[in-house]
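[#protein-structures] MJ: dropping Low molecular weight phosphatase family protein here for a structure pass
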Amino acid sequence: MIRILTICTGNVCRSPMAERLLQQKFDEIRPGLFEVRSAGIQALAGKPMDARAEGLLHVLGGNSDGFVARQLQEMHLANVDLVLAMGVEHRDRILNLMPRLLKRTFTVRELARMVDAIAADPQLEVPEGTSDHEVEYRWKRLPHLAALKRYETRPVDPLEDEIVDPYRRDDDVYRQMVHDLVPALDRLVDFERSYHQSA
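AK: finished. structure tokens for Low molecular weight phosphatase family protein:
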């Protein structure tokens, strides 16, 4: 099992959208092998997904059934393979809480850039294969490979690491969230899909 945790502030807009879209897309490739969950650093615990974010999720083909916001706790970080933060603030909060996760914690846009850099580097050996064991090994190695690219993929503009927070803002900001988030998620999914297409 590959365990991924997505993190934002309230856990009602950005991180649940990332959770549900990633889970759906990974299930299309390898059902049952990925577990994607989410939490918030100041969660609106017990609340359902924000209605406008939920509507956009449904437009994108995602499903919000049963979603309930939860407050980030240390136990949520105990066995994760990868933490995907929606912004630098969330990434830093995770590292303050559990410094040992340094090489497994990224903003989602940051990791998407790193995956591109890994794919473009013939010197890096990315584990191949499509068995459960091989896929798990690839994703357990990915954060280490990505960390090697952390410096060279640093953004010129720090905003390139952020997914805009739309909560209680205009519809345009919700659309901007989707514009920021979905291409990064797709890049991570395409990274895995490429190994199955070439198999």
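MJ: nice. Residues 101 and 138 are 18 Å apart (CA to CA).
AK: one more thing. Strands lie at 2-8, 34-40, 82-85, 105-107.
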